[in-house]
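ok, trying the design again with the full structure, not the truncated one.
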């Protein structure tokens, strides 16, 4: 058996050689027939002569071409319709950035959202921004957001559908003031003292953090460092910055009522100066940044706010309402708490000093109008109702009454809640808290 196989082998080899020679001869004949000159370009030959009709055949087979055309049609329809769908969705207050991506983002900032989208759309220059940016809600930091005014501002921003980050060191702020937002994914609370730097990515910064009552601020003069840190943050991330300054910048005024143009009459070394001069310095820093520093490019994107349009200054006058500290030391909170506790009302000095008082919701409306408006300020924010007291203390302003005509005209803002309506709301809040406090003490 072995012998037979070995004898067949040369024959098989011969046969194979014969076949291959025939194949080569046939190919040579074909080449000659097509007139192709170079026998060394078989690839060119293959592309031009065979694969083109073959790929066309492939396309036409099994309706492949039809499927490709339908796919292209669906894709183009989606991209054409997408801008108009996004525009429709901006009527939803939660959807922020898209609106002016398609209207060119006017220079005016009737709403802050339009400003933010203005920059992104102009950067991409085609009216479309990445979906992650377009669908992001306006993100706002409120420093001192767990305090009296801050927490009411947070309520308004949350109700409007913004993402809100509260920074508070709880020196005078209380978790109870914002506890109703816990669990809401749009709300974050950070325990932090603004005298230390912090880095966050936000669109707006309402800077309220600073003890505002004489009994508190002398222990915690945060104005200068806190403001510097927040201005630095705003500049770095391209956010709009609103400083809540105070009527105290007018000191014991020689001009009455006080207009924003009045420079004030402040004792630089008195008991109140850490607050008064601190806020004056905070205003100076804010205006220096405003004049000198344009916000930088952020990650290569154009900054959201135009040059010279990223700071705001509000001068807050005497404000009252629910959530004021019970022992805040200020006249309205003192009188209400004293009356409820049936204690004697404390009247300082000769009691001839005057103030005007505004309900907290009016102030918050004014702050938001200022932040979202077109004017830098400063603006006096207060009502024009006045109350007279009897006695007095060191460096205590004898009279104070704001001229709010600038805010009325340029922010279209004016207070709505008269003392008669606002005070009972505050009294109700104080009564509940004082009763709870008393109950707590009784239980101990
Ligand atoms: O129990 C009191 C408390 C206060 N007063 C007097 O009432 C007047 C108002 O005092 P408040 O402490 O309520 O408020 P002030 O006007 O001194 O400062 C306030 O106004 C502007 C805000 O920006 C400041 O943060 C805030 O401290 C003062 O003349 C004060 O001496 C009383 O007569 N009795």
């Amino acid at each position: 058996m072995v012998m037979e196989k070995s004898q067949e082998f040369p024959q098989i080899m011969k046969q194979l050689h014969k076949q291959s020679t025939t194949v080569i001869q046939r190919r040579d004949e074909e080449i000659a027939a097509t007139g192709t000159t170079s026998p060394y370009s078989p690839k060119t030959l293959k592309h031009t002569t065979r694969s083109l009709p073959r790929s066309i055949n492939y396309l036409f087979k099994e309706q492949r071409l039809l499927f490709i055309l339908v796919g292209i049609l669906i894709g183009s329809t989606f991209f054409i319709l997408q801008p108009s769908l996004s525009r429709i969705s901006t009527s939803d207050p939660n959807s922020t950035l898209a609106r002016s991506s398609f209207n060119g983002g006017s220079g005016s900032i009737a709403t802050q959202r339009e400003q933010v989208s203005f920059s992104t759309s102009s950067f991409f220059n085609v009216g479309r921004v990445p979906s992650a940016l377009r669908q992001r809600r306006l993100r706002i930091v409120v420093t001192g957001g767990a305090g009296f005014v801050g927490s009411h501002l947070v309520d308004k921003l949350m109700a409007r559908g913004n993402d809100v980050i509260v920074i508070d060191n709880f020196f005078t702020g209380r978790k109870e003031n914002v506890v109703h937002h816990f669990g809401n994914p749009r709300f974050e609370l950070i325990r932090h003292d603004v005298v230390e730097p912090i880095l966050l990515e936000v669109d707006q910064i309402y800077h309220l953090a600073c003890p505002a009552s004489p009994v508190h601020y002398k222990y915690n003069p945060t104005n200068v460092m806190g403001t510097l840190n927040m201005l630095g943050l705003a500049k770095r991330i391209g956010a709009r910055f609103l400083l809540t300054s105070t009527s105290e910048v007018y000191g014991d005024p020689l001009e009455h009522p006080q207009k924003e143009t009045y420079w004030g009459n402040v004792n630089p070394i008195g008991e109140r100066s850490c607050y008064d001069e601190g806020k004056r310095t905070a205003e100076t820093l804010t205006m220096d940044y405003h004049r000198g520093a344009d916000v930088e490019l952020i990650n290569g994107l154009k900054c959201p706010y135009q040059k010279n349009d990223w700071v705001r200054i509000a001068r807050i006058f005497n404000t009252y309402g629910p959530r004021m500290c019970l022992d805040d030391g200020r006249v309205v909170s003192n009188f209400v708490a004293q009356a409820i506790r049936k204690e004697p009302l404390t009247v300082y000095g000769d009691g001839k000093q005057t103030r005007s008082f505004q309900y907290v919701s009016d102030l918050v409306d004014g702050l938001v109008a200022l932040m979202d408006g077109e004017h830098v300020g400063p603006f006096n924010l207060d009502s024009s109702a006045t109350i007279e007291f009897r006695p007095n203390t060191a460096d205590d302003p004898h009279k104070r009454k704001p001229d709010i005509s600038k805010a009325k005209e340029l922010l279209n803002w004016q207070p709505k809640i008269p003392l008669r309506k606002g005070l009972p709301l505050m009294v109700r809040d104080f009564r509940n808290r004082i009763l709870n406090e008393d109950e707590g003490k009784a239980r101990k």
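Keeping the full-length input from now on. The two ends are 113 Å apart (CA to CA).
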